[in-house]
Structure formats: C-alpha cells, structure tokens
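step: validate -> pass
step: tokenize input -> pass
step: predict -> running
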Amino acid sequence: MNLKLLFSVSLFLTLTVSVSAVIPGTYYSTLEGKDSANLKTALHDIICQDTTHYLNYGSGPGYTWQGFYSTDRDPASNLVIDMYSDNLRYFDVNYVALGYKGFGMTIQIEHSVPKSWWGCDIDHPDVAAKDLNHLYPSDGTYNNYKSNYPLGVVTGTLAHTNGVTKIGIGTYTGYSGTVFEPADQYKGDFARSYFYVATAYQHYVKKWAATPENMMEPDTYPTLKPWAIQLLLEWNRMDPVSDKERTRVENVYAIQKNRNPYIDHPELIEYIWGNKKGLPYRTISGITSPVSHRMTLSPNPAKDLVQLNFDDQSGSFRYSIYSITGSLVSSGNSTSTTISVSNLQKGVYSCEVETGTEKLMSKLIIL
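step: predict -> pass
step: emit ->
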C-alpha cells in the first residue's frame, strides 16, 4: 500500500470518531415496503426534493472548490484526496483567504459519470453537473485520459497507467472498447457514485446519449445497461463502503442537504438491481442509523473457520455470505460467533450479520 493511501485511510479512520451520521430520523421513511423500480423512484424523490443548496460549478466562494475544501481535504495536512493518482498535492494554507481558487490543469473537477453522457454544456451547468455526490478532484492528466470512457477492467492493450488508474481495452457482453479502471480500493466508491447518478437523474430519460460507451440507458428503470449493472454490482460487493466515504457523505450533506443513499444503506443496491430485486425493502425494527461495517472477521483471509467480531454478541443472530456475483452461498442462525467457511471456494465474498438491533457487513476473503 502506498504512502498516500496509508495516510488517507488513517485520516478517515480518525475522522469517523468525531463525525457521526446526522441523518434525520424520517429521511428514508418512504422506502419501507417498496421494491425494484418503485424503491429506486422513492430514493430519487428523496435526493431531488430540494437541489437549491448545490454549489455553483467551478472555483471561488460558493463554487465546487469551496465544497472540495470540506469534502476532499485532509484537515491535518491540507492534502487533496485524489482517487485518480498518487501525486501528493495540497490546498494552500491560506486557501480560504485566497478565495477557494482552482488548481488549473494540475487538479481538475471530475464528473465521475462523464457529463457528455447527458449532453451537459459546462458553460451552462445543470443540476447533475454541480452535484458533489459524484464530483471529485482529479489529477488533470488522468482526468483527460479518462475522457468519456466507461468503467471497466482492462484485459487487453493498456494505453496508460500511473499505478492507481488504468486506461485500456476491456470487453463485456454489450461493450468492447476503451475503459477506465480505478484502483481496487476505489472500485466500490465509483460503483456507488454511478448507482447514485442512475437514481438521482433517472428523469434524464431524453438526455442520455445513445453511444456505446454510455453506461446509462434512456429509461427510469433500471437506467443502467445490463453489462454495466453486473460490473457495478461486482465492484460494490468486492469493495464495501469505507470510512472515507462515510466521512465524505456527511460533509456533502452539510452543504447540499442530500446524501448518496448507497453509502448509508448499500444493501439498497441489491434490492434495486441485485440479488434481492423484487423483494420489498424492510428496515430492521429499531435501526435508524446506516448499515454498520464495524464488524471484523478473523482470520481474514480465512480457510476453514472465521470468527465474527462485533459489539452485540449476547444472543442469536443471522449470518449470510454472498459471492461477488451476489449469490447466497451460506447462511444460518447462530449463537456462536465462529462459523465454518470450509465449503467455500477461493475468492472474495460479502458477509452480512443481522442481530435484531444491528445490520453489519464485512468483506471476506477465502484462500
């Protein structure tokens, strides 16, 4: 793991001690009992009920770079958190007094979902073009290399790489061509950003360009092309929500007054596009906070047995283990926190636990 990543991880682990979820108790109340398309539309209505708090696009007070100063800055060192490169760049110590200036071509405002996919004129940005939930500071060179290519895994000719980002040829059933591949530790971040855009802007039905590289399609459900759904589901499962994302969503909420629900409740993705599609979404009675990831597994990677470590171990709980493709491969009710995984093949899995008062998730690796 590189120096910048270590620094960023330690930063966000520290921040989560003091930054707690501030979701109003009724924020997600309209989701109860809904499924698939109706559930997605309910989330769309929550996200877009008031977009008047969005910052303007660009640099200066009241613009994107003021937002990035809150959402993508290490307050201890002023490091710019960049998911596109390992280059260490910093906000000036007098950044606020300097009026939230931009970084020119060095670091750019990146639309993680390319704005050309919905035909945005950046000189007259629409709401989606200003939404911090999918805007990130990006190394200028690799932002330009990324262009309007879709996400994917590079399996063919590699055109560019900096050790974090890859640009090259990828092939899927439904798309074959140049793709943008982020580092493994950021694949889930990008997947949840894309699921967010497909939800928040499902009403852009007539705007999504009919081009091969566009992962969106012109409908309100599912809004993502089939090959894109499968890719994003896999990335969401293999790279669970991080402390970095939890901290960022709180800072975005403080500005915009809306949230990426797939960071608060990543299980919603499965109810809309994945292995729980068609099932009514039910919250666990008494749980009003986001799904917790504060469960650890040991050993991890594991071979035969794994110990589930979480706070409330006083009674019975239900565990479920899903493959990276979303298939349920093991489940049961237990009072013992040691479970057998000897029947699982080598690979990456998602382990979920429901205690009745908590829902917990963690990535599990089988050797």
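step: describe -> The first strand starts at residue 107 and ends at 111.
step: cleanup -> pass
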